[in-house]
Amino acid sequence: MSERKTWRRDLTISLLLLALVTAAAVWTGVWVLTVVPVGFLFGFLLQKGDLCGASAFSEVVLARDTRKVFGLWVAIVVSMVGFALIEGLGWVRLAPKPMFWLNYVVGGVLFGVGTVLAGGCISGCLFKAGAGNLNSMAALAGMPLGIGMVEYGPLNWLHRAMMAHVVKSEGGGPVTLTSVTGLPYWTLAVGFAAATLAWVLVARATRPIAARDPQAPIVRRLLRGPWKPWQAGLAIGLLAVPAYLSSAATGRNYPLGVTHGVLQAYEVLTDNQVVHVWRPQPPAPVGQPAGAAPRPASPVPARPINWWLVGVVASMVPGAWVAARLSGVARLAPRDPVETVTAFFGGILVGAGAAFATGCVVGNILSGWALMSVGLFVFGIVTILANWITTYVHLMGGTLDRATLGAVLFRRT
After folding, report:
1. Which of 201, 205, 299, 370 is spaced 20 to 30 Å from 376 by Cα?
2. What is the pLDDT of residue 369?
3. Helical packing angle, 67-88 and 229-249, nearest 10°
4. Residue 96: closest CA among 105, 87, 88
5. Residues with Cβ < 8 Å from 163, sequence gap 6 or more?
């Protein structure tokens, strides 16, 4: 079969399956099925733009390249505008995370260090594994161990103790940019978007426009070639809106996230003491006779399995695989065993850090910054600094002189 027929076949099969799953969700009202196209497209777009948060942060130091960081920022800003729209229409109620500042600092340090050792954040390892990266597969094997140690293992007591240190706004809710500034969410969202657009226009006016390939049709370029980070960021920001609606339809009032999906995908295969959550929970029954005997408790507490989160993680890998296949980069390449072992233990650190911080780059930065949670800005800053320091020491051997390092970190692009 010719190469052209192969990629057209892969694309046709993928689109047909996504259409069938979406139609089944609409027909049956089982809205959790809509997570399949959401996760598939998320993995597809991440692979097309190579938008791994860990790589984006490290490349600022390694290559003086901020294009991927800007791509993430575009995704955040576009998400802000989309969330403001669906909130204004009354379709969702925005639910930013509380300010567990100690969790975010400790988790951010562990997470930032671990992402360099693992070669990616959680979402980055998911889409890289889909393209055949063995180190990312090893890191993913370690992540549930790290998350589990914090969620219900030997580090759980520390996790719960740190979560007691929560900062609240004057009204008792989460600390957000809205609660700090007094400005409505939609006003801030429009302001961030306008400032970003103005920055882009000024930057484009001062840079030469790159030549385009007039031979390749735009559809072929998008399907077969890599995307610029800002293009992938724009698409991910647009995807964040239907992702939020899909999540809310299953009773989970939060946008994209992958940390607990990785843990629960492991649990659903290894544990039978679970409770399956895939739709909004019904209200508690009323009229129960007073003094009625409660149901006997299970000797082992059941763990909730949120199938929306599991579905995102499970669908991202084939989405990334199809994207890599279309681009001709899906392959298992040999890796240095030392790197693979390091990635496994880095994955444990990534998982533990994400569990302490209640999220990763996707849940805490992509979604959390879009919801303007001040605590998650703290997490993001700590994560980036830890990533930079580890990149400088581990990947560069501390060889960058101080003057050059300063130019890298503060260089305008």
Report:
1. 201
2. 97
3. 30
4. 87
5. 100, 103
Write the pLDDT tens digit of every residue in 294-324.
444 555 677 889 999 999 999 999 999 999 9
Residue whose entry in the numeric block shows the structure tokens 């294009």: 67
Asked whether residue 348 is domain-assigned, the answer is yes
The Cα–Cα gap between 309 and 256 comes to 8
In sign, the C-alpha dihedral spanning 401, 403, 406, 410 is: negative
Residue 346 domain-assigned (yes or no):
yes
Backbone region of residue 209 per phi and psi (left: phi > 0; alpha: psi in -120 to 50; beta: other values): beta
CA quadruple 111, 345, 312, 156: dihedral sign: negative
The whole domain housing 82 covers: 35-207+217-278+304-408
In a domain, 327, yes or no: yes
Structural domain total, the chain:
1
- The answer to pTM > 0.85 is yes
**What confidence tens digit (pLDDT) does each residue in 159-211 have?**
999 999 999 998 889 999 999 999 999 999 999 999 999 999 998 888 766 65
Q: What is the pLDDT of residues 252-302, one digit of tens each?
A: 999 999 999 999 999 998 888 889 888 887 765 555 444 444 444 555 677
Which residue from 347, 303, 305 is spatially nearest to 139, judged by alpha carbons?
Answer: 347
Q: Give a yes or no: residue 170 inside a domain.
A: yes
